[in-house]
Amino acid sequence: MSTNAANKTTVLVIDDEIQIRRLVRVSLEANGYRVLEAPTGKEGIAETAQHRPDIVLLDLGLPDLDGVTVLKRLREWSRVPVVVLSVRDREEDKIAALDNGADDYVTKPFSTGELLARLRVAQRHAQPATDAAVFRSGHLEVDLTARVVTVNGKEVRLTATEYSLLRLFVQHAGKVLTHRQILREVWGPTYVEQTHYLRVYMAHLREKLEANPAQPELFLTEPGVGYRLRGSPDK
Length: 235
Prior knowledge:
Layout: H1 3-6, E1 10-14, H2 18-29, E2 34-38, H3 41-51, E3 55-59, H4 67-75, E4 82-86, H5 91-99, E5 104-107, H6 112-125, E6 134-137, E7 140-143, E8 148-151, E9 154-155, H7 160-171, E10 176-178, H8 179-186, H9 195-209, E11 219-222, E12 226-229
Parallel strand pairs: 1-2, 1-3, 3-4, 4-5
Antiparallel strand pairs: 6-7, 7-8, 8-9, 10-12, 11-12
């Protein structure tokens, strides 16, 4: 990549319509942006992890994954600004996208001027890049993009709840999470008093991921408060 290209703002367009991708590419490149393309949700997630674009333009009607699902997957590990481009103009679609991590919502058809203005707003609101697609601590490695967990290089299978719990710890690695915080995030607000759920699943995680579950070195207990995962995500 040339120095000039490296200095340009990179936009990843995740859309299965080649005409839309072509239109966006021509419009953005004419205004100084660098454009990447992905025709499916899975490819879009992979491109985001590999190339770390400055902004993502996301269609909701993708052939493999719904756009909201792609949003949720991205927000598991990335804070890249996401602007939704969609023919869906119902209020509930807009609310679902915004509630699940979209920074803006543009309805098709759109003008080049409006799109450029929305991109400028997204850039202004962008947070410093601290995303980490892979977390490592001791013998544990968690690939948040592929959702693969390994211990000493060997893949470990987790249930959906176990993975949600692990992901929460990874997202807040090195910080103490209270019992109520964990229960609310993983099980929902009606479960904040159900501490026995947490004890059972913490035992499951330690059994699967600790070298010695009886003397945990990764998932540390903070007596009377909660738990903490040792380490912090790779930068």
